Amino acid sequence: MVESMLKITEVENDSRLTLILEGKLTDPWLSEFERIWADAKRGGWAKVVVNMKDVMTISDRAQVLLHDMARDGVKFVCPRGVLTKHVMKRLADRCGFREKRSGE
Question: What is the pLDDT of residue 39?
Answer without folding.
Answer: 94
